[in-house]
Design a protein that fits this description.
Layout: H1 2-19, E1 49-51, H2 57-68, E2 79-81, E3 96-100, E4 113-116, E5 122-125, E6 133-136
Region (Disordered): 21-44
GO molecular function: hydrolase activity; RNA binding; RNA endonuclease activity
Signal peptide: 1-22
């Protein structure tokens, strides 16, 4: 009986990796997600990670604009991101800023964004803040 109890206790841990290989956060049609190589930085621990080369080309372009300091195509680019959904680590207001990732064919800003933190953190959302992926270096 103890062996059966121990087996049942361990079974969910064995199945967990199979359950965690879900969708790629809204850009699965553009490029399939694959695990980022290397060790994730402390700010990305516990989050799904993605490398820049796994992002849609428009997101890579937005990251280049951020690195250069602009110019940005949308007036709201660079504004404070409130993290009202609490999907990113909690920080004081003003810590995060958001930038539009254009969506081909969209008549408005679309749902894709890059969110930056004050310490070089970069996050991608392809579904308007429902899910985030930490953008890490390989």
């Amino acid at each position: 009986m103890r062996t059966l109890t121990a087996l049942l206790a361990v079974l969910p841990l064995l199945l967990l990796p199979a359950c965690s290989s879900g969708s790629s956060g809204g850009h699965k049609t553009e490029q399939p997600a694959r695990p980022a190589t290397g060790t994730a930085p402390a700010w990305a621990k516990g989050m799904k990670t993605v490398t820049e080369d796994q992002l849609p080309p428009e997101a890579r372009h937005t990251l280049q604009l951020i690195a250069k300091g602009g110019p940005f195509p949308y007036p709201k680019d660079g504004t404070v991101f409130g993290n009202h959904e609490n999907r990113l680590p909690r920080q004081n207001r003003g810590y995060y800023h958001e930038y539009t990732v254009p969506t081909p064919g969209s008549r408005d800003r679309g749902a894709r964004r890059i969110i930056t933190g004050q310490h070089e953190e970069r996050y991608y959302t392809g579904d308007h803040y429902k899910t985030f992926e930490a953008v890490v270096h390989p």
